[in-house]
Structure formats: C-alpha cells, structure tokens
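Try this one yourself first.
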C-alpha cells in the first residue's frame, strides 16, 4: 500500500484541566517584604489532569496556613475528570473552600481614620464547570450548577466599638459559560446592539470597545471578562465585578479569561494593598484540552 492510500491516524485528544480551592500569600508585613521559599506551601486543594485524562481529586480538611491570621481558610476540595462521551471529550471541574477570611490594616496614607482592620469573609465558595470538546467545532463551557457564594461580607473593625459587617450579593451569568462558543459570542457582540450594551462593559481592555467589532483581545489573544455582572453591598447595587475598599484593597469577583478553546475562571480574588499586603484567590478552574 502506498503512502497516499494509507489509513489516516485517529485523532487524539490531549486533556487539560486544573482546579484550585484556596491559595494566598503576603508580600509585605510590618513594612518588611516577604520572599516566598520553596517549602512555603501557599495553595491548598488542587487537582490537575495528565494529557490522557482520568480523575484527580484533593481534599484538605485542615490546611496548614503560613500567613494566619491575615489569610485564613478551612476545608478545601477539588475534583477534575476527563472522559470520553460518544466521540466528544468532557472535562468536569469542581473547586470549593470554606471559612475564608482575608484581613489587612489601613495604613496612614489610606486616610481611613479610627479603623483597626478590614476583612473580606466568606462562609463557602464553590464553582463547578464542564467543558465539551467535539472533534469538528469549538468547545462549549457551562456551569454544572450556580456558583456558591455564601456568607460573603466585608467586615470593618474600628479602634473602639463593634465590628460593622456588610454583606455582598453577586449576580451571575455569562453566555461564554452557558454553552456559547467564542465564535457565537463574537457574532452577537458585533451585530446585536442590546447584547453589545450588556456585555461590552464587562470586558477588561486597554483599547476602545466598539459596536460592530469583535471583543478586544489582550496581547496574548485572550478576552478578559467576568461571570459577575453586578454586586450588592450593604443593600446598594454596583455594576461590574470589582470592589475597591479604601484601607483594604481590591476584591474581584468571577474573573474569566477566554479564548476559542479555553476558559479560566476565578470565583474570588482578593488583593490587599495596605500592610499587610498580599494576594489570594479562591475557587478557580481552568480547562482547555485540544485535539491533534
């Protein structure tokens, strides 16, 4: 048999799926920089697939935390599986964590007088995502269940008197995590003015977002957006997915990084900008297997 008539090799799928429950570290404490060392574990509850797929899971009931009391969390669990489904490939990802508290102290330059410390807290955070990878078209990505954000609050403790607790409520929803491919999203974004007006404000970009043009990509080809369209804090509604709190820093809800073949979603990211200064993230998943 000559080479031209030889049977074509079967297509092969290379899985990729990652989930992270809890992670965080400090950069500055008491005015002194902190340098991470190889033995300083800062992430708890993580699962990752090999290229062949399978099942990976992790459960940490009582994580050993390096940066308490400033970064605290409890039970952290992840599960990732990659399997066949009638010719398509399915990747399922779950990440959850409990008893989250991230705390910092306002610096004098923050101009927040009479406040001892400010904390972000959550009773439970959970995210479940599934991706379906057909052989002949772009994959689709969907939430297996609504994201869980229980007991999410901001706590402000004054120098004297009781702590004030303000509750967050998050409004979820995005077609790129509800079964739409990126090509489908691009088409609606460019042709449907109502659709454009709803989703253009959620795109994080340095360039102008214009109706009739596809959503701007970053320098690495990704669209950065959010599965959170608005949030309520202490009864007042705010558009967007980022909350800036003087004397504390920035809380980012539901950040999603997208291209035609992947979704990377972090339910909550907290960046404390005073002293202590640090970064932490909770309930994150990343999936983008490919055919070859």
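Now uncover the answer:
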């Amino acid at each position: 048999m000559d080479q031209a008539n030889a049977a074509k090799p079967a297509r092969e799928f290379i899985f990729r799926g990652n989930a992270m429950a809890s992670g965080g570290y400090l950069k500055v404490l008491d005015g002194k920089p902190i340098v991470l060392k190889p033995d300083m574990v800062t992430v708890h509850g993580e699962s990752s697939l090999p290229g062949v797929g399978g099942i990976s899971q992790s459960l940490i009931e009582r994580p050993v935390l390096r940066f308490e009391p400033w970064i605290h969390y409890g039970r952290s669990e992840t599960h990732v599986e990659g399997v066949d489904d009638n010719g398509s490939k399915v990747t399922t990802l779950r990440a959850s964590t409990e008893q989250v508290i991230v705390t910092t102290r306002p610096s004098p330059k923050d101009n927040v007088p009479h406040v001892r410390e400010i904390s972000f807290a959550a009773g439970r955070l959970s995210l479940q995502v599934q991706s379906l990878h057909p052989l002949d078209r772009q994959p689709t990505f969907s939430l297996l269940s609504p994201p869980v954000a229980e007991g999410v609050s901001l706590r402000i403790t004054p120098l004297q008197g009781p702590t004030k607790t303000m509750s967050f409520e998050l409004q979820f929803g995005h077609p790129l995590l509800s079964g739409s491919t990126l090509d489908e999203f691009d088409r609606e974004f460019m042709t449907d003015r109502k659709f454009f007006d709803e989703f253009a404000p959620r795109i994080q970009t340095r360039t102008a977002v214009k109706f009739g043009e596809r959503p701007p990509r970053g320098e690495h080809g990704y669209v950065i957006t959010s599965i959170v369209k608005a949030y309520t804090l202490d009864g007042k509604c705010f558009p967007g997915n980022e909350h800036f709190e003087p004397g504390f820093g920035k809380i980012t809800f539901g950040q999603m990084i997208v291209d035609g073949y992947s979704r990377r979603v972090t339910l909550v990211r907290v960046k404390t900008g005073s002293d202590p200064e640090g970064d932490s993230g909770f309930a994150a998943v990343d999936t983008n297997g490919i055919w070859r």
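Discussion: The chain has one domain: 14-291. Residues 14-291 form one domain.
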